Amino acid sequence: MSDESLPGGSLPDDGGPGPADALPEYAERVLEVTELIPPGRVMTYGDVAEWLEEGGPRQVGRVMSLYGTGVPWWRVVRADGVLLPGHELRALDRYREEGTPLREAGRTAEGHLPRVDMRRARWDGGEHAQGHT
């Protein structure tokens, strides 16, 4: 999720009023939730959408792909715990630094990369869950 992964290397114009670099409200809300996730914990794309009570996993994934470079993007994951394609090694370094629970890859796993242990790493919002919107 680096700047080079963004089309043209900059934020897109969402077609709405205001400057081209202003984030849409939904994107701001997704990024705010991402910043709440503690080190060593994760939420799925669907968890973030459910937290916001708006959108779905694809919308959250789109926001993360376009705007997620400035937040701990590695803490928003697929429900199966598979590392983000194209960013596996960067994410794995972060998970190891933060002590995120991982499951070792099986012999048939592509690239033999571990997955996030969703049972142990998934975060439900804890004390922040009350009164969220």
Give a nutshell description of this structure:
The protein has 133 residues and is mostly helical. It is built from five helices and four strands. The longest helix is centred in the first third of the chain and has 12 residues.
How does this structure look, described?
It is a single chain. The chain is mainly alpha-helical and 133 residues long. The chain is built from five helices and four strands; from the N terminus they run H-E-H-H-E-H-E-E-H. It starts with 24 loop residues before the first helix and ends in a 12-residue tail after the last helix.
Question: Which class of secondary structure composition applies to the elements?
Answer: mainly alpha
- The percentage of residues in β strands lies in 5-15%
Compute the number of helices. 5
DSSP strand tally: 4
Order of helices and strands: HEHHEHEEH
Q: Quote the distance from N terminus to C terminus.
A: 26 Å
Largest sheet: 2 strands, parallel
Low-confidence stretches: 1-19
Rg, alpha carbons = 15 Å
What is the mean pLDDT?
83
How much helix is in the residues?
25-40%
Shape summary = globular
Strand order of the largest sheet: 1-2
Secondary-structure blueprint:
Layout: H1 25-36, E1 43-44, H2 45-52, H3 57-67, E2 76-77, H4 88-98, E3 102-103, E4 115-116, H5 118-121
Parallel strand pairs: 1-2
Antiparallel strand pairs: 3-4
Helix pairs in contact: 1-2, 1-3, 2-3
